[in-house]
Amino acid sequence: MTVLVLGGAGYVGSHAVDMLIKKGYDVAVVDNLVTGHREAVPSTVRFYEGDVRDRAFMEKVFTIEKNIEGLMHFCAYSLVGESMQRPAMYFDNNVGGCITILEMMEQFNVKHIVFSSTAATFGVPEESPISEKTPQNPINPYGESKLIMEKMMKWQSEATDMTYVALRYFNVAGAAGDGHIGEAHKNETHLIPIILQVALGKRDQITIYGDDYKTEDGTCVRDYIDMEDLINAHIKALEYLKAGGMSDQFNLGSSHGYSNLEVLETARKVTGKEIPSQMGERRPGDPDSLVADSTKAGEILDWHVAHDLEHIIENAWKWHSSHPDGY
Ligand code: UFG
Hints:
Blueprint: E1 2-6, H1 11-22, E2 26-31, E3 46-49, H2 55-64, E4 68-73, H3 80-85, H4 87-107, E5 112-118, H5 141-159, E6 163-169, E7 171-173, H6 191-199, E8 206-209, E9 221-222, E10 224-226, H7 227-242, E11 248-252, E12 258-259, H8 260-271, E13 277-280, E14 289-290, H9 295-301, H10 309-322
Parallel strand pairs: 1-2, 1-4, 2-3, 4-5, 5-6, 6-11, 7-10, 8-13, 9-14
Antiparallel strand pairs: 9-12
Bound molecules: uridine-5'-diphosphate-4-deoxy-4-fluoro-alpha-D-galactose.
């Protein structure tokens, strides 16, 4: 039986493909290579280059892949800032893509999907840590698009016999332990890769966006989740659905927040580099603190975080230092 990985050439998707293969699953990949990298997927994996919004293309894939028992969805756009500039593009790709995917599941009788959702669906959270009961009020088109997708899956699962798990990621970072795949965005905006690019000498310094937040040292606090822990959650979620588990949503984080300055200090320790920094203005749309309460994922999926921030940065550093120009 096959797991079809949608967006399998992207940062998170390529790590899912890697771990699924290592665990003995049969894997096929769909990716339009807009942000993904063909080199991130082994040449032995069945690879379909095309767009999930393209119905004729998707029908072809589902016709060829006769044994799909589950989908993993990693094919959404995911940058908060970009979504504020281009909301229509985000709703088109994310929500539009989701429509075709759900239609294909119905048409070809595919029962399960594990979906990458996000902490951005909570907006400025009403409480911390953030549990599944915390109200979702997104404050940007990216978070809104993922919340709409969660709701589409909920209605579809009520109307048909498909089941889904939505995994709301907090801040994903890190890379495969052997450093052969990792994070390679054309325009990097995330804290840890930018810090490591400074450590490599590819940038002069890191600008920390604001130190007047309501946190201990004044810089924003985020909950970092290791790539391997994250993919483990996907595999556990898929197995849970295959075993007859009900559709559900889980918040995935370590339940531990690190301030931006703590992340910087950890990176200095791991890399042994000075990593020059300066304090800058706030970046619009950044909540003070985002920390997950992942108790529910522990109880229902038996998912537990194994890796801390230091391990995350160690693996990210292995990738960045061995692939300074990405793929
Ligand atoms: N930051 C800096 N300087 C930089 C880049 C980032 O200070 O050069 C700060 C940000 O202001 C923020 C923190 O580092 O305070 C983390 O920022 P990232 O851009 O790395 O990540 P975000 O928290 O903005 O967003 C990420 C994902 C979202 C997801 C969110 C959930 O990109 O998709 O985590 O927690 F919704």
